[in-house]
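hiii so um. not sure if this is the right channel but i have a protein structure encoded as tokens and i wanna go backwards to a sequence. like what aa goes where. can anyone help
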């Protein structure tokens, strides 16, 4: 999770100054019990990424279950590309 990957579509200016809601940051720091602002931001981002990955994973699992149950049938799409 700590490996940094370069994606040319995402601008990452590490060390750049940004405006952050001070009250929101303080609340996040209290809830996370983070020792620093940097730790708060990194932990909050990690949790956000994990949450969003979980949502996508759950949606994909639900879609697979629907296909297996016959609720979704992609076979009728085969002729649409012609």
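sure thing!! here u go:
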């Amino acid at each position: 999770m700590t490996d940094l990957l370069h994606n040319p579509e995402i601008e990452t200016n590490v060390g750049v100054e940004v405006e952050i809601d001070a009250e929101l940051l303080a609340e996040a720091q209290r809830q996370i019990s983070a020792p620093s602002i940097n730790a708060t931001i990194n932990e909050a981002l990690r949790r956000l990424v994990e949450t969003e990955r979980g949502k996508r994973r759950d949606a994909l699992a639900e879609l697979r279950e629907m296909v297996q149950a016959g609720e979704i049938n992609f076979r009728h799409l085969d002729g649409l590309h012609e």
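oh and The chain has a mean pLDDT of 85.
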